[in-house]
Amino acid sequence: MKKQILSALVCLSAIAAPVALTAPAAANTGPDREAVELVAPEYPRGAERRGIEGTVRIEYSINADGQVVNAQVVEANPAGVFDRAALSAIENWRFAPAAAQTDGHSRELEFRLSR
After folding, report:
1. pTM for the complete prediction?
2. From the CB of residue 5, how many other CB atoms can be counted at a distance below 10 Å?
3. CB atoms within 10 A of CB 73
4. 102 - beta bridge partners?
5. Residue 62 pairs with which residues in a beta bridge?
6. What is the per-residue DSSP string for the chain?
């Protein structure tokens, strides 16, 4: 019986965490660039196991080809927990090509567990 309950909890937690990340992140600030592909960050397993939620604000530029460059964490709560996951996701985002690089983009990603 314990094994069945544990198995059910593991399945639920694997489903619940990614769903929470599909909600829209806080508004993007900076020059307009059409998003082509926005990859949701993976919820860090350690944070998920401990029930930790938080936010990370990233500032970045988008080069002329539509790739994210110069991404950096400017604010994180709690510090250091979701930084790597947020950076990894944003660095895989793609935008429509433009004549030149655009700077001054900022996005806040929320990491929330479903309840």
Report:
1. 0.74
2. 9
3. 17
4. 62
5. 68, 102
6. -HHHHHHHHHHHHHHHHHHHTTSPPSPPBSS---EEE-PPPPPPHHHHHHT--EEEEEEEEE-TTSBEEEEEEEEEESTTTSHHHHHHHHTT-EE---SS-EEEEEEEEEE----
Report the percentage of the chain scoring pLDDT > 90: 70
* Band of pLDDT at residue 30, cut at 50, 70 and 90: low
What CATH class does 2-111 carry? alpha beta
Indicate the range of 13-22, 45-54, 56-65 predicted with least confidence. Answer: 13-22
- Tokens, residue 47: 């944070």
Tokens 């960050």, residue located: 41
Cα angle, residue 57 at apex, residues 88 and 55 outer, rounded to 5°: 90
What is the spatial distance between Cα 107 and Cα 102, in angstroms, rounded to a whole number? Answer: 14
